[in-house]
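[Q] Does anyone have a clean structure-token version of this?
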Amino acid sequence: MDTHVSLFVCLCLLAAQSIPAETTSELLTLMKHLERPRGRTMPSRVKHIHRLEQMLLNTSFCGHNLTLQTDAIQSLVFELGCSFPGLSLSSATLPNVPQAWAPHGMQFPAELTKEACVASQPARLRLICVYFFTAQLFQDDSNSSLLNNYVLGAKLDNRTVNNLQNPVNISFWHNRSLEGYTVTCVFWKEGASQHSWGAWSPEGCYTEQPSPSQVLCRCNHLTYFAVLMLSGDPVPAELLVPLEYISLVGCSISVVATLLTILLYAHSRKQSDSVTCIHMNLHGSVLLLNVTFLLSSQMALPTVPRSVCTVLAATLHYALLSCLTWMAIEGFNLYLLLGRVYNVYIHRYLLKLCVLGWGFPALLVLLLLVIKSSVYGPHVISFSKSQENGTSFQNVSMCWVRSPVVHRVLVMGYGGLTSLFNLLVLAWALRILCRLRAPDKALSSWAYRDTVMVLGLTVLLGTTWALAFFSFGVFLLPQIFLFTIFNSLYGFFLFLWFCSQRRHSATEAKAEMEAISSSQTTH
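[A] Here you go.
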């Protein structure tokens, strides 16, 4: 037995002398350098991570595995063969794991080495696992929050491993409350960003929550994995199909209705006035918003170039800001019509409104594209699904704003100010309407007309967009359906308002003609 042990030691020494290897001290030094990324440029970080991977793949050691560890990085190396039965790793069984580290684990299927062994019969296969217990090296453009700030990575030689039939299972345990968050398993997609060395993507990963303290990622490839924490309550996956159907049907109807309104206006226009022109500009912005929204999910597919999705996301954001701005202009114009006793003349009034309605949103979006174009791109929306073994998540992508700060300020904030202003204008207009009707005894004759007027103003001022601020708690599900129904059909409601106003104008014109005719007959 001692002879066999001596022979094994000698073989290890010979291998160490014949194979160019990096020493353990060099590996540990590099890992400690990676722990201190501050002040290092992005190319330097990428270079050091790739160098660590190559050093781990080329280093020589005795036995079948090697474990190296620093304060925030752990590296594991395994020698595999074509008869690989699978491998299960857990922080509970790894040596010298600090108690402060949250439990984690990775499970590799036997299929992992199948493609490499079928293509050729390699003398050896080496699996490396690199665990980063800090997210500083993997900051994307959105500065996304990661569960435990853990990034767990794996690589098989210098081979690309993807489309596995049996997924790699990555487990993240935690002791924090995830209330108000949606967790999504993601992987680091190198080269997917212009300002960072990669971006987080959910492609090929399936998210489960077997227990309140565990998130399980099932991914069909090897790379660096993490759990993305998105603020907001998850929407049940059962609602995905109905919401998609409502959005598709509603937006399609609105596109047709808006086009019809613009064509009718262009065909029947005799004399242009500011009110009608403002209405048509609002219709134009709604048309652009619906068309870009319908395209946004199709352009977020992995087969579509990222630049196309970025341009479409910026266009969708511009269309929304323009639509909100024209709603505010409608409110301002209504104030001028009802609040001023005498006519107000503003030099080049329509031109100034068009500069505000179309130019100001364009300026905001162009500034964002110039400063940081990565704020636009594929945006992930998670839907939760309850299962016997926990909760799983289904991800849907669309081309939209990716930056949480930009979304809070230039989507929710901008929309909130617009909705607040128009709600105040609507309340003020209703107060004036009630005051005008107060002396009238026969209120019933005006009831129908006033109801139509109130509903029309509500639609015209876009007050239904205020529903976006009720997406929490018990209001979440009703809000989602009401918001989707009302705002996908917004163009259709504007068409109904246009028809009612046109009918009212025709009735008034007819009554005026009859009055003139009657007057002429009398004389």
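[Q] Thanks! Anything notable?
[A] Confidence is low (pLDDT under 50) at residues 1-22.
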